[in-house]
What does this fold into?
Amino acid sequence: MPPGLDALKHIVVLMMENRSFDHMLGSLKAVNQQIDGVDGTQYNLDTQGNQVFVQPLAAFQSQLDPDPDHAFPAVDQQIFAGDQSPTRVATMQGFVQNYFQQQQDVAHSQKIMYYFSADKLPVLTSLATNFAVFNRWFASIPGPTICNRAFAHYGTSFGQVGMNMFYPQGKSIYERLQDAGILAKLYYFDQASSTMEVVNLFQHQPQLFGTYDQFLADCKSGMLPAYSFIEPNYTDHDSDDGEQLASDQHPDHNVQAGELYIASVYNAIVSNPALWASTVLLVVYDEHGGIFDHVPPPACTPDGHSAGPADTQLTYTFNFDRLGVRVPAILISPWIPKGTVVGTDRVFEHASIPATVTKKFIGSYTASTAREQGAQTFLDLLSLDTPRTDTVVFNT
Amino acid sequence: MNEAGNKPASKRRRKAIGLRAPKLGGDFTAIPIHILIPPATAMNKNRPISSLIKAQLLHIQHAESARLPKDKRVGVKLEDIHTEAEAAAYIAAVTRVLHPQGRKRSRRKPRS
It folds into this structure.
């Protein structure tokens, strides 16, 4: 077994909200041509037929307001520019026209093409260039948060393409690990933010949950579970410790607050040398939030479910055979060579998470979905023979 | 103003939400990366709730109805929740019941 995998005892996943790959990491193409980002030539047509090119003008807050539509029909328009025919091709040309529908404002609609310059996101930029960045990590569904997060927990959304409640027919990764006597936890930020995984897991198995403060304590004490899933703060609210700023980066929450949160999770792990040497951290986003990305989502292994027109609100049935829009994904470990770029020939999505965790800690598991069984896993990226001694740390 | 256009954070704000780089000993070479604290104006507890929070509220109410007898429920109507602060208050109330272990321990030292 490669030494990095042999040393690996903890997998940590931090899932942020609603930003596309090009929006957050696209500028890195200028730093490293291997990174499939933007170069200023990517565009959409606006409602007046003008070309709207990508520009590094993304702001931390108060720009993407109203929140860009990311429900299933909206994402369909973003990807296919309104074409619902059986022979349609994904052109990624519908973002500006879709955003226009929310305010009927041509100038405002063009902001959906804005991306962040690398210097504005020092945390994501540093982690992406020091560790591994995925050129092809997609949302699991061309739709919103809850059904996408379900793929990270269950390897499927059980036929859901929206935000409805559902009761799963299979075991989450946490329950599988629990059955195998292996500790796993979902850490939510605080009680006022809570978790997005309410109806299925939180309601019935609260023992699987912890808080962010507990995550920090577990890192310090070396008591981190084998598998940890971390959620950011979903709202601006008061707490016993004062005001808490939302850190999920969901529009219109402040993007810098999310950078601070990612940095704090990373710092907590790296500050414990034994933990750092035995942990891999995946920072990933649940879906693109309606924001432009230039890479057409590919087809994928269906998971045996389908969603009819009543659910898709379109004219066709969706067979879960196509992925959602590309999202930022960064893998962090001292066992990963500096500057790793995971190429365009390898496609990942949120089912890759339970697939990877199951493979590492359980081994063979036949009860997972076809989609999960077909998903790429990512621990082969821990390829160094000895762990690196160079790294980054963050401070304010 | 700094390069992000943020007013420099006060000492109190820096202490509240700032981050300190860990000191790594041994053979480590750690490059410190400076990051900015969001401005105080980033906070808006009166921000209208997003579709995501609306969905979360429905799910939280479902869990409340399933787990709590009627006389123990928080008794909030979702149609009365409009802001992030209001949503957070209701979510906290139900989460306290579902997961009392998630209560934040007071950092204040007990008076002797």
User: Anything to note?
Assistant: Residues 81 and 89 of chain B are 10 Å apart (CA to CA). Chain B touches chain A through 65 residues (CB under 8 Å). Residues 107-112 of chain B have pLDDT under 50 and may be disordered.
